[in-house]
Amino acid sequence: MLSALTQLLIFQLLGEVIARSLDLSLPGPVLGMLLLFLSLILRGGPGHELQTTSQNLLQHLSLLFVPAGTGIMVHLHRVADEWLALLLSLLLSTFATLLVTALVMKLCQPKAPQPGEAP
Amino acid sequence: MTPRIAEIWVYLAASPLLGLTVTLLAYQGAFWIYRRSGSNPLANPVLIAVSALVLFLTLTGTSYQTYFAGAQFVHFLLGPATVALAIPLYTQFKRVKAMLLPVVAGLFAGSLSAVLSAVFIGRLFGASLPTQLSLAPKSVTTPIAMGIAERIGGIPSLTAVLVIVTGILGAVGARYVFDAMKLHDPAIRGFAIGIASHGIGTARAFQVNEQSGAFAALAMGLNGALTAILLPPLAGWLN
């Protein structure tokens, strides 16, 4: 687990350094993800340890958003002023985005969809 | 409170231990409820945990800064977890290559509709211009969205909150949209969730199906990059 976690941190660090030195608008972790992905293609897949560690980490991905989400308590007054516009915009826009994305993909899909459990 | 308990509280309130512990407790409680509900999207664990924490912090008079001094250790793991998304992406790479056209078309269509619909619906219902610009990057993962908001004249901290709410809305509502469309392909369902509701949607997708999760992670990364490129020039035109 320790070596896998170290690998993840090294790729995040690499991403951070490259993004900042080239002044990219991509955040370091996203660039780190792309770099790790490229390295996986080069070395033909993750080892067993990296596989299980990332699986454990991603299983509780929702937990990692909780501290930032709790930040809503700081903005309650600002949200209260324009709550109707904000709520309608977020709600309708999120559903429109889901609908448009899925519809466009379905129309462009070459083959019959695979069966399986889905969210 | 007896003086002794008050003393202990003063110590705990100033130490990172409390913020960290209540975050883990709130999440595990929320996750238990989510599992007990049969993984019902309405019982979203982020939504339940955040509500419980806001209530707890308000009732105990604890500031967000004090709380975050402890919770930052959980927050920090977002970085390595984002990097770790490369692994499911690699596992699903064959399927992604086979779906290159729908992926690219869905990315552009979804990314543009996320930005334009948020701004115009906000405008229609009388949101101020800074609020409209804060809404624009709401479907993108938090760090990218805050950076974009800053560049185009939005309020970054407001954007952070809007991003989280969008994530929760997508994670909760996506199933109903897809079921109404009679859409069953886990790859498309995952990709659309990732475009519309970034990491929180991706987390929900992973809890349901590995393939959905991988496509959601891919969509989140691509949408973050595309919005960061497209939105700044577009914002001048939106004003």
Structure description:
The complex is a heterodimer of chains A (119) and B (239). Chain A is mainly α and 119 residues long. Chain A has helices at residues 2-21, 28-43, 48-59, 66-70, 76-81, 83-108. In chain A, helix 1 packs across helix 2 (28-43) and helix 1 crosses helix 3 (48-59). The longest helix of chain A has 26 residues, at 83-108. The relative contact order of chain A is 0.07. Chain B is mainly alpha-helical. Chain B folds into two domains: 3-76, no CATH class; 83-238, no CATH class. Helices cover 84% and strands 0% of the residues of chain B. Chain B is built from 13 helices and no strands. The model of chain B has no long low-confidence stretch (mean pLDDT 90). At the A-B interface, helix 1, helix 2, helix 3, helix 4 and helix 6 of A face helix 2, helix 3, helix 4, helix 5 and helix 6 of B.
Q: What oligomeric state do the depicted chains represent?
A: heterodimer
The figure for the number of domains of chain A is: 2
Assign the structural class of chain B, choosing from mainly alpha, mainly beta, alpha/beta, alpha+beta, or little secondary structure: mainly alpha
Name the poorly predicted regions of chain A: none
Proportion in β-strands of chain B: under 5%
Judging from the principal axes of the Cα atoms, what is the shape of chain B? globular
SSE series of chain B: HHHHHHHHHHHHH
Stretches with pLDDT under 50, minimum 5 residues of chain B: none
Number of strands of chain B: 0
- Share of residues in helices of chain A: over 70%
Q: Can you count the helices of chain B? A: 13
**Number of helical stretches of at least 4 residues of chain A:** 6
The biggest beta sheet of chain A reads: none
**Largest β-sheet summary of chain B:** none
Helix percentage of chain B: over 70%
Largest interface: A-B, 82 and 121 residues
Mean pLDDT of chain B: 90
Shape category of chain A: extended
Strand portion of chain A: under 5%
Radius of gyration over C-alpha positions of chain B, nearest whole angstrom: 19 Å
The ordered H/E elements of chain A are HHHHHH
